[in-house]
Amino acid sequence: MTQTTLKAEGAALAAAPRRARRSPFQRKIFPYLLVAPAVIYLLGITLYPGVFAIYQSFFVVTFTGWVPNGVGNYVDLFQDDEFWAALWNTLVIGGISLTLQCAIALMLAFFAYRDPLIRGWRIIFLMPMLFMPSAVAFIWKLAFMDGRVISDLLMRVGLISENIDFLGVVWNARLTLIVADVWQWTPFLFIIFVAGLQAQDKEIEEAARLDGASWPAIFWNISLPLMRPVIAVAVILRGIDITTMFTNVFIMTQGTPGGTTETISYFIYRTGFRLFNFGYASAASAIMLILTIIIAQVLLKRFFRSGRA
Length: 309
Known about the structure:
By secondary structure, this protein is an all-alpha fold. The protein is 73% helix and 2% strand. The protein folds into two domains: 1-45, no CATH class; 80-307, Orthogonal Bundle (MetI-like fold), CATH 1.10.3720. The chain has helices at residues 3-15, 24-56, 72-78, 81-114, 116-119, 127-130, 133-146, 149-156, 170-198, 202-210, 215-226, 228-242, 247-253, 264-273, 278-303; strands at 59-61, 66-68.
């Protein structure tokens, strides 16, 4: 290339507009700008309704207007036996359901993590979680009540002699909600537990295996203690979700018999959208939110003291 050609190319490069470099402030704020639309959207559908419900809880809300009531709704709520019964039902049904889910998920995670045959088919365990909650509730309602599939199967194998009344007996009705919840949401804990097992240091387990420890002993004495933070997070997340159990109750039992399957979410729905007492329902929502935050915070401090499990 001649000298004239090189000069011409150099002049062209010099004349081309240079790419503007971002300032340190722009580079720092750029990631926040990317997530800002999603954050604004989530705050709009969660924070605003929550603040509005708390504000509404201090009024007697009617179709003609709002009448200030101070803390009257809260005072009445703490004296309401139905509210306390709903809290108790949520604790009983949710506690039993969560305990069964943790036990079954840990057992499935142990086999799926170790057994090559089961490990290859672990996707099957996730299928119940893929169904819509309303569809699951209708399926189990058909099995327990409308179609009496469960009763028919038990009669065919000779375990019972007549159909079981699942809506007329307290624990039978609670059992239907527990079974439906366990069937659908055990895969959620299963995913977390399998991921926790796979993330553990393999050298520790290998050393125990070389010392002659069996796989069940390794899981119980090594893997399970190391999974304590994972189990704690999973239990807290699933426990918070259980407090909002509504779909199964609405479709399967609607609180029967005698309100013994009415959870706090269904109590709020019934108070607000059937009795049209929106201020009272908002007060119940606020109390449930506060209780959930307190319990979650206590559990987090219990399992993660000083930032360590």
